[in-house]
């Protein structure tokens, strides 16, 4: 009975939300962009263009960590070399190397437990001292967001890349289409991707055993 009610309710809810927000896809990365832009506009900064080429690169950025959460923040923090953008990330996404633009900010978070986009934003990504400064930086014109678990499970990574490039001449996709790769979701491509939500339903047993939320964040202006 309760389950039946929930099904009816969620169908009604998805129908009504589909009517209101036809552009927002069932994709946690798109939802994080919506949260981020709402926060910027509340702070009188313009909303950023959601660039699928940049977002695909954000997913490659996550993949460079190969699931090593402890390399995101803390004493063992590492970041991929900048040369990876042109040599690996852009070709993997079908982004024209000639259209790469400077990155004006990066926020990267990794945590053991899956959190939804708005919780990941406020409880993980915005927790560093520099996070707000990066979020409100006036040099950004566009953003790309990605989320992925390693092999579809814990730990979960979120990556936000900001750029100051011209919105329709930077991170240009060959043929105009993003190369969708799984596991992981990225923003801006009108791609339904609810993989992250499915992962959260079946947490690996070790996360249950640990219980606590382990979260590491990396925030850098350039
Ligand atoms: C924007 O995000 C920051 C960090 O999570 C939060 O403190 C602030 O209240 C948010 N602002 C709005 C208007 O939601
Ligand atoms: C914006 O970019 C200019 C030129 O690169 C730089 O001098 C300035 O510090 C940047 N502003 C911020 C807030 O990062
Ligand atoms: C690029 O963006 C500008 C401003 O948003 C727009 O006026 C122009 O038509 C766009 N160019 C192309 C090729 O889409």
Automatic annotation (TrEMBL):
Keyword Methyltransferase: no
Signal peptide stretch: 1-18
InterPro entries associated with the record: CAP_sf
Keywords: Signal
SUPFAM superfamilies: PR-1-like
PANTHER family: OS08G0459300 PROTEIN
Protein name: Proline-rich protein
Organism this protein belongs to: Actinidia chinensis var. chinensis (Chinese soft-hair kiwi)
